[in-house]
Amino acid sequence: MKDIVRGWRHIQQRYNLIGSKCLQCGNVFFPSRVSCPECRRKSKIENFKFSGEGKIHTFSVIHTPTDEFKTLTPYVVAIIELDEGANLTSQIVDCDPETVKIGDKVEMVFRKIKAEGEDGVISYGYKFKLKN
């Protein structure tokens, strides 16, 4: 029951890229921070919704995955530089791993992250795909 309550409480972050922004210096963070490491005590932090668009900063093609990802091989995991400036790590989906390049434009999509057993709760979250 505790996990269900926690899941509903974080639903906005699950379906949007919600980070934070320092109103003092303008730096943005993902995941959210409670204070800015640059402004420290002067920082004024507010929630910030990222557009979900960016580019591939660097990536790896995974050929030998963990048991959870065996059916997906090979697959791509990348560090995404969001248009607003923050970086995050995500899987790149719906692509041929051999065609992915540093600098490719990407956009956020919602995909299945995991399932709790065959008949359990399915968790969804963000991944990225190459932008046309």
Task: Walk me through the topology.
Elements lengths: L1 H8 L1 H5 L2 E5 L5 E2 L15 E5 L3 E10 L12 E8 L4 E7 L11 E11 L6 E9 L2
Q: How does this structure look, described?
A:
- The protein is mainly β.
- Helix content is 10%, strand content 43%.
- The strands form two sheets. Strands 4-5-6-8-7 form a five-stranded mixed β-barrel. Strands 2-1-3 form a three-stranded antiparallel sheet.
- The longest helix has 8 residues, at 2-9.
- It is globular, with a radius of gyration of 17 Å.
Tell me briefly what this model is.
The chain has 132 residues and is mainly β. The chain has helices spanning 2-9, 11-15, and strands at 18-22, 28-29, 45-49, 53-62, 75-82, 87-93, 105-115, 122-130.
Number of strands: 8
Radius of gyration, in Å, reads 17 Å
- Roughly what percent helix? under 10%
Shape annotation = globular
Number of helices: 2
Q: What's the CATH topology label of the largest domain?
A: OB fold (Dihydrolipoamide Acetyltransferase, E2P)
The amount of beta strand, in percent, is 35-45%
Per CATH, the architecture of the largest domain is Beta Barrel
Helix/sheet category: mainly beta
Spatially, the strands of the biggest sheet line up as: 4-5-6-8-7
